[in-house]
Amino acid sequence: MVAGVALIPNWSAGAAVTNDPTVDASTKATFQKLADAVFTDRTQTLVDGSTSAHTRHTAGFSGSIRLSGDQTRAQSSALGKLRVRKALLAKLGEKYSAGNTKVTLDAIEVHGRSAKVAVTETTTLTYKKGSTRAKSPATTGFQAHHELTFKAGRHGDWQLTGIHDTDDGYLAVNQVEPPSTPTAEPSTPPTGEPSTPPTGEPSTPPSDGGDPQDAPRAATSFPAPANPKQLTGGAYDYQAMVAYAQKYWNNYNTEYPDFSGQGAGGDCTNFVSQVLKAGGWKHVPGYTNDYTKWFGTADIQSDSFVGVNELSWFALSSKRVTPLANVYQADLGDVIQMDFDRDGSKDHTMVVTSRDASGVPYVTYHSTNTYNRSVASLVASFPSAYFYAYRT
Question: 10 Å Cβ neighbour count for 337?
């Protein structure tokens, strides 16, 4: 687990438990192993060659610590949905030859016969070679955080009764059910953030230069019409953007605030703004709530630096980006956004960090911290979402 990125409740890791039944070190270790088995089964379901008949890791748990009946059915349902996703991915030319999941126990809270267990899941999937794609990244991966609920029976046996994802994001490749109404990132800075811009001027209403320009939706059909990008010799350093994203996808830069776990949509746009800044985007000082301004430091950030919709408005109004007609046209350093529930408010921001020879972009993002996830995987996982793509 990487320091600074775990999103766990304010419990004491390994806190002493005095409630009956006693949760000793052996019980805690088994809680962790059962959690590992649950998410390992979900990951392995996506790997090429796995079938509905493959031996489940959770099958080895019975007796004193096991899945409840309801959770057994929920796990079976999740695996079935992931098999459908696997088939959709295969149609889009994406297969995984191997998967590895490791779950670490972060904290336990026990009240009588109920226990909450906070865990961090770290998963890596290896892209299968020899498929229709060439020159794809070797792997994709993510870190996700979960809260598991255990209930003890009359005889002290513990059953896993619930699993809750605790990240602000909801984009893990082996995650089954995203929230029906995702929360967009804040339109205003979080409480406690300075409200004055770097110039020291007081805050004023947003720009009166007219309504912000909205981005046109991007198609998700593949293959996309050709729209090559000039990667060198221009105003921005796209390789520097990629290098920054690879360095900080799960190892947050302490020179900026971390908005993960604040219940306001997460750190995704803040992270992408840092990537753009690393590649040459310059600050435009001014009022924090003026969408035509853009700046971010450790002490203060404009709404456009941390907000999904505000970044889009700034990028378009400043002409630092141009919309792309198809999400598969995106290349290194380009930005992709998603509106999960199609309500007109964008929910998530990502940056392209790779593109394979067949024309599939791969994105890296925060909340849930993810590197080199293919756009094909996003389209297969969220077929009803609206996509927006921007050439930087």
Answer: 24
CB count within 10 Å of CB 253 equals: 16
Residue 196: count other Cβ atoms within 10 Å of its Cβ: 12
Mean pLDDT for the stretch of residues 105-129: 94
Q: Whose structure tokens read 């753009």?
A: 276
- Residue 8: per-residue pLDDT: 33
Place of tokens 């080199």: 372
Helices (H), the chain: 25-45, 69-91, 238-248, 268-278, 303-306, 308-317, 375-381
Backbone region of residue 22 per phi and psi (left: phi > 0; alpha: psi in -120 to 50; beta: other values) = beta
b or e along 361-380 (b: 16 or more beta carbons within 10 Å of the residue's beta carbon)? bbbbbbbbbbbbbbbbbbbb
Q: Is the pLDDT of residue 19 over 90?
A: no
**Contact partners, residue 344, CB within 8 Å, separation at least 6:** none
Alpha carbon distances (Å) from 116 to 7, 89, 119: 14, 34, 10
Residue pair 281/293 in contact (Cβ under 8 Å)? The answer is no
| Strand 386-391 versus strand 369-374 pairing type | unpaired
Give yes or no for residue 13 having a pLDDT over 90. no
pTM here is 0.82
Concatenating the DSSP letter of every residue in 103-168 gives EEEEEEEEETTEEEEEEEEEEEEEEPTTSS--S--SEEEEEEEEEEEEEE-TTS-EEEEEEEE-SS
Cβ partners under 8 Å of residue 2, min gap 6: 143, 250, 251
- Count H helices, E strands: the chain? 7, 11
CA 197 to chain centre: 29
Is the distance from CB of 305 to CB of 290 less than 8 angstroms?
A: no
Residues 308, 391: Cα–Cα separation, whole Å: 16
Q: Write the CA distances from 327 to 121, 131, 307, 323, 383, integer angstroms.
A: 29, 21, 21, 10, 13
Which tokens belong to 354? Answer: 């790779």
**Distance from the Cα of residue 256 to its chain's centroid:** 19
